Automatic annotation (TrEMBL):
<dbReference type="Pfam" id="PF00700">
    <property type="entry name" value="Flagellin_C"/>
</dbReference>
<comment type="similarity">
    <text>Belongs to the bacterial flagellin family.</text>
</comment>
<dbReference type="InterPro" id="IPR001492">
    <property type="entry name" value="Flagellin"/>
</dbReference>
<feature type="domain" description="Flagellin C-terminal">
    <location>
        <begin position="325"/>
        <end position="405"/>
    </location>
</feature>
<dbReference type="InterPro" id="IPR046358">
    <property type="entry name" value="Flagellin_C"/>
</dbReference>
<dbReference type="GO" id="GO:0071973">
    <property type="term" value="P:bacterial-type flagellum-dependent cell motility"/>
</dbReference>
<dbReference type="GO" id="GO:0005198">
    <property type="term" value="F:structural molecule activity"/>
</dbReference>
<keyword id="KW-0282">Flagellum</keyword>
<dbReference type="GO" id="GO:0005576">
    <property type="term" value="C:extracellular region"/>
</dbReference>
<dbReference type="GO" id="GO:0009424">
    <property type="term" value="C:bacterial-type flagellum hook"/>
</dbReference>
<dbReference type="InterPro" id="IPR013384">
    <property type="entry name" value="Flagell_FlgL"/>
</dbReference>
<protein>
    <submittedName>
        <fullName>Flagellar hook-associated protein FlgL</fullName>
    </submittedName>
</protein>
<keyword id="KW-0966">Cell projection</keyword>
<dbReference type="Pfam" id="PF00669">
    <property type="entry name" value="Flagellin_N"/>
</dbReference>
<keyword id="KW-0969">Cilium</keyword>
<feature type="domain" description="Flagellin N-terminal">
    <location>
        <begin position="4"/>
        <end position="139"/>
    </location>
</feature>
<keyword id="KW-0975">Bacterial flagellum</keyword>
């Protein structure tokens, strides 16, 4: 078979070019430290590496989410720790205020200190997570949860609980509604809590219900139904604002007055003292209070003169009621702290599992993509030898011509 000179040149040049490409590819692999430089190098391996890389990226994002959740929960838990300290101090002050030998002035000093605790508590309730997001506003994280009012504080947030995805199938709550922590102090199973003054001599009863047509007028404030010294007339005072909302009204059995969205009904009780007694009083409160309203009530009580036996009896009654409310508020705070602590513990465990999973992903990627340097260097040396041999043989082959013989 006759092989032309053109064929020799074409085949030789093509083979040398292929060897140079192979040598260059091996050099690129060594420089990159990767066995797969393009999907065509290993289609199956490339597809598998893509899936693993995506899973690893998602796992890294979960780790970032867990870090953010831990930061937020840690701030929230620390804030509630401070709230717990404030409430314990409040309880101590209220116990001190119940000392019967204290004067009105000395009780006013305690009231001033309680006012400082109230302001501190309000500041803690409006804490942020360090990124200007309020901790206890529910979903309304850009709105300060509480606004100070004359009767304590009003809640501006919602009942939502913000969560963050921390694992494939797990969302962790990173906030709590302010109402769940600082509110939800049930003073009654009914819509309103009506309590007779402990110094009352009559057994008349007072019942309160929402007046549906005027529901929009509800204030959430505290009221007092008080009879005069004859027991024949009564008035209603908004003790939160200090305004008399129902002037002296003659009592008949029963009598109903409508004020601020409420129907207040006074009726005779049972027994020989069924009618209201002189100076009898009844306190009307919302059936659900927040801690700010409780503290405001006890502060107002401590600033009211209590030099008579009746005044001291009423003061002790209010202190006992406030103490019970503070206990309920403490229970709410401790429940929220427990939930936050449980979430932090779970996040630690998820971090450990996520770290282990990340190592597995990276090991699998290494097995698929990383270069075997010993094998690659051996292949590089081999390609260099083959290329040199091919080049030399090509030179020899192209020298076998009639013109070379003639020379």
């Amino acid at each position: 078979m006759r092989i032309s000179t053109t064929t020799i040149f074409q085949n030789g040049g093509g083979r040398i070019s292929d060897l140079q490409v192979a040598l260059n590819r091996t050099q690129q692999q060594i420089a990159a430290g990767r066995r797969i430089l393009s999907p065509s190098d290993d289609p199956i391996g490339s597809a598998r590496a893509l899936v693993i890389s995506q899973s690893d990226a998602v796992n890294d994002q979960y780790a970032t989410n867990r870090k953010n959740a831990i930061n937020t929960l840690s701030v929230a838990e620390n804030t509630l720790g401070n709230v717990t300290d404030v409430l314990h101090n409040v309880k101590t002050l209220m116990v001190s205020a119940g000392n019967g030998v204290l004067s009105d002035q000395e009780r006013s000093y305690i009231a001033n200190e309680l006012q400082g605790n109230l302001d501190q508590l309000l500041g803690l309730a409006n804490s942020t997570d360090g990124t200007e997001a309020y901790l206890f506003s529910g979903f309304s994280s850009t709105v300060a949860p509480y606004t100070k009012t004359q009767g304590g504080a009003s809640y501006n947030g919602d009942q939502g609980v913000r969560s963050i995805q921390v694992d494939t199938s797990r969302q962790i709550p990173i906030s709590e509604s302010g109402n769940a922590i600082f509110g939800n102090i049930r003073t009654s199973t009914n819509q309103f809590n009506v309590v007779p003054n402990p110094s009352n001599t009559g057994t008349a009863t007072t019942a309160v219900a929402i007046n549906v047509p005027t529901t929009a007028n509800l204030t959430g404030n505290n009221y007092e139904v008080a009879f005069d010294s004859t027991g024949l007339n009564f008035s209603v005072k908004n003790t939160t604002t200090g305004n008399t909302v129902v002037p002296s009204t003659a009592y008949t059995n029963p009598t109903t007055v409508t004020v601020d969205g409420m129907d207040i009904t006074v009726a005779n009780g049972a027994g020989p003292s069924a009618a209201p007694g002189p100076n009898d009083k009844y306190t009307v409160q919302p059936g659900n209070q927040n801690i700010f309203e409780t503290l405001t009530d006890v502060i107002n009580a401590l600033r009211t003169s209590a030099t008579t036996s009746q005044g001291k009896l009423e003061l002790n009654w209010r202190l006992n009621q406030a103490n019970s409310n503070v206990d309920k508020s403490l229970s709410n705070v401790l429940t929220a702290r427990t939930n936050f602590g449980t979430s932090l513990k779970e996040l630690d465990e998820l971090n450990s599992a996520g770290d282990s999973l990340g190592l597995i992903y990276k090991q699998e990627l290494s097995d698929i993509q990383d270069l075997d340097y010993a094998k690659a260097i051996t292949e590089l040396n081999q390609n260099q030898v083959v290329l040199q041999a091919a080049q030399q043989s090509f030179v020899k082959a192209t020298s076998l011509s009639l013109f070379s013989y003639m020379n």
